[in-house]
């Protein structure tokens, strides 16, 4: 009965612990969590070292499999493939034997993690668990005290008590006095013994950490000693060269292969990667994943800064060049001179690609509608064709054709691609200036030296 009352008492309003007792209980629980985390972390550390040793042996086995001779279905060696040098095979075999010996020695050292760290921590955990029974008994005494106190206060609140209630009140007061004494004795026991228990639990931590450091140093010493001796015996540098030196050697050996591939493969010869540098800048880290969106912008900025090989001869020359000329920002018209169409396009965030998508969508819709209309018209009498629109004389408009791609650098710029036809809205006598043009219903500024004069219609 008393056990059931204590279980229900847990869900009733509780009184606060004494400040000193509450602090002691919090420290004890923190020490218990520390032991649990230490045990779990040591197990993960032990398993990680075991995985390292297993993967090292497996890696050397795969190297031997890669370097082994290719045998045909008839059982003979395939003469069309170059054989691996015997010195390389012997070197891999030697390294594998070293790794197998190292694995045997280091697994014995890894097993010391259980003996010197995990098992002592578990022993301390058992002692902590035994002391938790003392804390549990003290919690039961507190529940009894709270129960008798609530009963006494409930009867004392009544102004007109009967004789039976007065008798019950007297009994409750006696029970409360007894429960209070037992509860206070339990608190005193915690005050006198709990600090020593917590201190003893924390005192084992330096010894466990010292054992972990010694085991880690032993494992690393065995591993690096084996690799150092192997490197010395077979002519490898120990310690290895710097990363910059390794990259320089790789680029020296790789450049001839890359240039040969770029000159012989047509797909690479006419691609964009040929004109880009091999060394890429360090990409900034992203914790939100939004840096992926900025990669395209970074690539565009890098392409804008590429120095031109030669510049076009003029608007009317029509000479082709390998890279676009340098832009003169000082001659660019101010944003206040832009037409409302370009301002509206920038305000709505629609760039060149968005406009092309809209135009492509309209063209596709018009094509589908025209096809359906032609099929329906073929089934009935063909109506007379509509009158042709009045042609505007060519001397009223002047056009240029883009020689390069231009993605725009700021608000109000007119983006275009190589081969696009642009109508000139406003221009100057200097080809090195920025002119204003219109393409696809959008007006904006563009560099004049990126274009050539378009031929007149009919020529």
Automatic annotation (TrEMBL):
<dbReference type="InterPro" id="IPR036028">
    <property type="entry name" value="SH3-like_dom_sf"/>
</dbReference>
<feature type="domain" description="BAR">
    <location>
        <begin position="6"/>
        <end position="240"/>
    </location>
</feature>
<dbReference type="InterPro" id="IPR004148">
    <property type="entry name" value="BAR_dom"/>
</dbReference>
<dbReference type="InterPro" id="IPR046982">
    <property type="entry name" value="BIN3/RVS161-like"/>
</dbReference>
<dbReference type="GO" id="GO:0031097">
    <property type="term" value="C:medial cortex"/>
</dbReference>
<dbReference type="GO" id="GO:0030479">
    <property type="term" value="C:actin cortical patch"/>
</dbReference>
<dbReference type="GO" id="GO:0097320">
    <property type="term" value="P:plasma membrane tubulation"/>
</dbReference>
<feature type="region of interest" description="Disordered">
    <location>
        <begin position="372"/>
        <end position="392"/>
    </location>
</feature>
<dbReference type="Pfam" id="PF00018">
    <property type="entry name" value="SH3_1"/>
</dbReference>
<dbReference type="InterPro" id="IPR001452">
    <property type="entry name" value="SH3_domain"/>
</dbReference>
<dbReference type="GO" id="GO:0006897">
    <property type="term" value="P:endocytosis"/>
</dbReference>
<dbReference type="GO" id="GO:0051666">
    <property type="term" value="P:actin cortical patch localization"/>
</dbReference>
<dbReference type="GO" id="GO:0008289">
    <property type="term" value="F:lipid binding"/>
</dbReference>
<dbReference type="GO" id="GO:0043332">
    <property type="term" value="C:mating projection tip"/>
</dbReference>
<dbReference type="GO" id="GO:1990528">
    <property type="term" value="C:Rvs161p-Rvs167p complex"/>
</dbReference>
<feature type="domain" description="SH3">
    <location>
        <begin position="395"/>
        <end position="456"/>
    </location>
</feature>
<protein>
    <recommendedName>
        <fullName>SH3 domain-containing protein</fullName>
    </recommendedName>
</protein>
<dbReference type="Pfam" id="PF03114">
    <property type="entry name" value="BAR"/>
</dbReference>
<feature type="region of interest" description="Disordered">
    <location>
        <begin position="309"/>
        <end position="338"/>
    </location>
</feature>
<keyword id="KW-0728">SH3 domain</keyword>
<dbReference type="InterPro" id="IPR027267">
    <property type="entry name" value="AH/BAR_dom_sf"/>
</dbReference>
């Amino acid at each position: 009965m008393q056990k059931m009352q204590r279980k229900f008492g847990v869900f009733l309003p509780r009184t606060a612990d004494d400040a000193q007792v509450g602090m002691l209980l919090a420290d004890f629980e923190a020490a218990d969590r520390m032991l649990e985390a230490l045990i779990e972390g040591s197990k993960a550390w032990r398993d990680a070292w075991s995985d390292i040793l297993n993967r090292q042996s497996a890696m050397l086995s795969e190297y031997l499999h890669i370097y082994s001779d290719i045998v045909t279905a008839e059982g003979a060696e395939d003469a069309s493939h170059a054989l691996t040098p015997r010195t390389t095979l012997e070197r891999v075999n030697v390294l594998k034997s070293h790794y197998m010996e190292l694995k045997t020695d280091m697994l014995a050292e890894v097993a010391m993690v259980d003996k010197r760290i995990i098992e002592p921590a578990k022993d301390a955990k058992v002692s902590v668990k035994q002391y938790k029974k003392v804390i549990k008994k003290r919690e039961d005494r507190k529940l009894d005290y709270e129960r008798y106190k609530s009963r006494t206060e409930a009867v004392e609140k009544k102004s007109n008590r009967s004789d039976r209630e007065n008798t019950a009140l007297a009994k409750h007061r006696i029970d409360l006095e007894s429960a209070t004494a037992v509860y206070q004795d339990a608190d005193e026991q915690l005050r006198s013994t709990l600090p020593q228990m917590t201190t003893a639990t924390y005192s084992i931590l330096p010894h466990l950490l010292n054992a972990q450091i010694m085991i880690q140093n032993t494992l690393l010493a065995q591993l690096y000693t084996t690799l150092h001796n192997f490197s010395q015996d077979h002519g490898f540098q120990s310690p290895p060269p710097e990363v910059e030196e390794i990259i320089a050697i790789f680029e020296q050996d790789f450049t001839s292969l890359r240039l040969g591939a770029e000159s012989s493969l047509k797909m690479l010869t006419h691609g964009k990667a040929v004109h880009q540098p091999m060394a890429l800048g360090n990409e900034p880290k992203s914790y939100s994943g939004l840096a992926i969106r900025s990669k395209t912008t970074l690539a565009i900025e890098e392409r804008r800064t590429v120095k031109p090989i030669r510049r076009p001869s003029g608007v009317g020359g029509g000479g082709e060049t390998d890279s676009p000329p340098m832009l003169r920002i000082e001659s660019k018209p101010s944003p206040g001179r832009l037409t409302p169409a370009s301002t509206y396009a920038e305000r709505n965030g629609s760039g060149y690609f968005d406009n092309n998508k809209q135009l492509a969508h309209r063209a596709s819709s018009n094509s589908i509608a025209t096809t359906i209309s032609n099929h329906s018209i073929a089934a009935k009498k063909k109506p007379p064709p509509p009158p042709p629109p009045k042609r505007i004389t060519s001397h009223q408009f002047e056009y240029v054709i883009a020689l390069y791609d231009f993605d725009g650098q700021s608000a109000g710029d007119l983006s275009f691609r190589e081969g696009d036809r642009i109508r000139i809205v406003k221009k100057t006598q200097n080809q090195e200036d920025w002119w204003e043009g219109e393409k696809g219903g959008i007006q904006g500024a563009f560099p004049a030296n990126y274009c050539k004069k378009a031929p007149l219609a009919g020529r």
